[in-house]
Amino acid sequence: MQLNGQEIKWAQETLDRVAHKLERVAERSKDKIPYTTLHGVHDDKSGEEIGWWTNGFWGGMMWQMYALTGKELYKEIAEDNERKLDACLMDINRLDHDNGFRWLPTAVADYRVTKNPASRNRGLLAAGNLAGRFNNRGNFIRAWNDWGPDDHRGWAIIDCMMNLPLLYWASEETGDPRFSQIAVSHADTAGKSFIRGDGSSNHIVEFDLETGEMVKSYGGQGFGEGSSWTRGQSWALYGFTLSHLHTKDPAYLATAERVANYFIANIPESGFIPVDFRQPVDVALEDSTAAAIASCGLIELAKLKEGRQSRIYLSAALKMLGALAEERVRWNEEEDNLLEKCTAAYHDQEHEFSIIYGDYYFLEALMKLNGRELFIW
Ligand code: GLY
Questions:
Q1: Phi, then psi, of 268 in degrees rounded to 5
Q2: Is 159 in the pocket of ligand 1 (CB under 6 A)?
Q3: Whole-angstrom Cα distance, residue 375 to residue 356?
Q4: Distance, CA 243 to ligand 1 centroid (Å)?
Q5: Cα(148)–Cα(335) distance, integer angstroms
Q6: HEC profile for 183-218?
Q7: Can you say whether residue 227 is alpha, beta or left, with left for phi > 0 and alpha for psi between -120 and 50 degrees?
Q8: Does residue 149 register a pLDDT over 80?
Q9: Rounded to whole angstroms, how far apart are CA atoms 274 and 268?
Q10: What CATH number does the domain containing 263 carry?
Q11: Is 188 a catalytic residue?
Q12: For the residues 290-296, what does the mean pLDDT come to?
């Protein structure tokens, strides 16, 4: 991957601006685990809602900032986030396939930096629970627990590709291949049952619990069945890239590139990513998180490839990140969020607000471009 002089300058300056703002935000939000902002002020999910799936990203941002600056405050905030998550680790109802999102950017990151044995313990407990969600008839990891009358025992979702690195890490750490064997089985199923011929992805697939056959797909957080929820596409893009990085299997790289090429072909001229690539043409809803996550995956692909293909991936990432930096970042240091116009789900009542993982992946992408990233996944 080769950035030209102008791109290097932009990446450095943009990361500097982000770091400058985050120094003030971290001080203000040091006792919280934020998800979104209300009137520019971070909320806090560290109480009753400690099980919320995004509760690792704030810690991850702090570890990235610690890698960049070495300032103790960031490490202390990240450690606090990790300790607070213990309430979730001890509650079976709050554990699900998103254990990777919760503990890779917190406990595992901590362990990678400090070799703290308590963090290793947390990471391995989370990985063991994630592995226990594997259905060995359908070769998939069950996504969610059940709420109300819905039965989710046969449901898997594309997002889980981002949780698999917790299993790859657990195998590397323990020398026991069972964890990565489960990750590989799930990734193989996802490649077959989620990724369509054109490189787009289903969000949810239901499998028969006994035969393991695919029953049907659901639109999930996107527009509808058969649509193309953009955050799901970005989880697939980055997730298959990561499975390739961990296993070196060329099939995962081929899948990641198929998803990437589909994604790139659908990036609008503006560089702003809709909530669903197949939403009605008169709907202008955006999701900045999809742009930031896909950019991270594309930068990794650019590093894996050479020449023209590497440039195509890098240029697409720079286009989206440039559009975000230009018009979708709240550079005002009085407000706590970076990105605006993030959307959790197409059919939700509310759209286009700030979401912590949008900020996390925007920071991670800038760290990658500057060669400063702490590897989290
Ligand atoms: N993993 C859930 C989401 O992306 O909204």
A1: -65, 160
A2: yes
A3: 18
A4: 19
A5: 37
A6: HHHHHHHHHHHCECCCCCECCEEEECCCCCCEEEEE
A7: beta
A8: no
A9: 9
A10: 1.50.10.10
A11: no
A12: 99
In a domain, 242, yes or no: yes
Please give the residue range of the domain that contains residue 257: 5-132+168-179+194-200+229-369
Q: Residue 148 pLDDT more than 80? A: no
- Cα 302 to Cα 285: distance, rounded to the nearest angstrom: 28
**97: exposed, middle or buried (Cβ count in 10 Å: 0-12, 13-18, 19+):** buried
Which residues face 276 on adjacent strands? 229
**Phi-psi bin for 271: left (phi > 0), alpha (psi -120 to 50), beta?**
left
Nearest to residue 289, comparing CAs of 195, 375, 360? Answer: 360
- Please tell me if the CB atom of residue 221 comes closer than 6 angstroms to any atom of ligand 1: yes
| Number of domains composing the chain | 1
The mean pLDDT value for 280-301 works out to 98
Query: Chain-centre distance of CA 50, in angstroms?
Result: 18
User: What is the model's pTM?
Assistant: 0.98
CA–centroid distance, 247 to ligand 1, in Å, is: 24
- Residue of 171, 170, 204 lying closest to 190 (CA atoms): 204
* 268: CB partners within 8 A, 6+ apart: 274
The answer to whether residue 207 is domain-embedded is no
Q: What are phi and psi of 147, to 5 degrees?
A: -125, 140
Residue 338 lies in a domain: yes
CB atoms within 10 A of CB 132: 11
The burial of 182, by beta-carbon neighbours within 10 Å (0-12 exposed, 13-18 middle, 19 or more buried), is given as: buried
CA 95 / ligand 1 centre spacing (Å): 15
Whether 133 is in the pocket of ligand 1, judged by its Cβ within 6 Å, is: no
Pairing of strands 204-207, 214-218: antiparallel
d(CA 187, CA 272): 29
Residue-wise pLDDT tens digits, 212-242: 999 999 999 999 999 999 999 999 999 999 9
